C-alpha cells in the first residue's frame, strides 16, 4: 500500500512579491536535463539567458534555440579568467553543476576569478533530497535536519552552506532547491524499463522513492526565481512517493503488457551503487513548493507523468510517419 499525503495547514508566511523575468539576465552553470529546460522557459518569458556546458553538441543545440552558450569546465583554471566577461550584466544565477568533495566547483571558480556579479539579485542552487539521509520511510519537510549518508549528499550540503554564506554577504535571495528523482522525456523512465528485456520489479517492504517530472521541476525553479524571498529551502517533489514496482506496473498497463516479474530485494543482486540508493527511505512533503506564487504541479503523480510521456511518444511517431 502507498501512503497518501496528509493535509497540513496553509503557510502563514507573507507571500513574496512577484518579479517579472523580462529584462533580467539569467546565467546557468550546467545546462543539463533540468537546468537546460529552465533556460529555455526563462528565455520564452523574456529573460536574457546565458549558460555553460562541457558538451559541444549540447552547446550547439541550445545556441540554435537562442541561448548564449559558453563551453566551460570549472576544473580548467585557464578558463576562469573569462568568467568576469561571461557574467557581465547577470542578475540571476542558477547552479546545476554536481558538487566536488569540497563543495560547489562553480562557487570556487567564481571566487578564485573574483567574478561574482555586483548586481546579483537571485541565486538558485540545485541540491538533492539526498541530504536528508535515511528517514525510515517517515514523512519529512524542509525543517528536517539534514543527515547525509553518501559522499555526494555530504558535498551538496557543504555547497548549500557555502552558497548561503555568499548570498547573505551579497544581499542576494537564495533558493536551495532540493530535487527528488527527475524523470521525463529524453531520460530513461519506467516506460523504457518495461520495454527492456529481462526487466524485473524489485520488492522491499515499505520502501518508497520520491520523484518529480522535469517540466514541474523547471516550472518550480522559474516560480521561485519570479518570487525571491531571502533564504528559502524547497523540496522539489510530486505528491506521491511510491514503490519502484508501482511505476513499472503502471507503465505495463499503459503499454498493454503484463507486469514485470517480482524479485525480493535480498535476491536482486543489485550493484553497490544501486543498493546504496535503496538504503534510504523517506516520504518528502512538498507544501512549500505548492505554495509558490503562480505554481501548480502539472503532473501530481507518476501516473499523469508517464501517461504524458507516452502520449508525446505516440504523437511524435505519428508525425514522423506522415
Automatic annotation (TrEMBL):
Instruction: Please tell me the species this chain comes from.
Output: Rhodovulum sulfidophilum
> Where does the record locate the signal sequence feature?
none
Could you identify this protein by its name? NAD-dependent epimerase/dehydratase family protein
Q: Which InterPro entries match?
A: Epimerase_deHydtase (IPR001509), NAD(P)-bd_dom_sf (IPR036291)
> Which residues does the UniProt record annotate as the domain NAD-dependent epimerase/dehydratase?
125-229
Pfam families according to UniProt:
Epimerase
The yes or no answer to whether the keyword Membrane is present is no
Q: Which UniProt keywords apply?
A: NAD
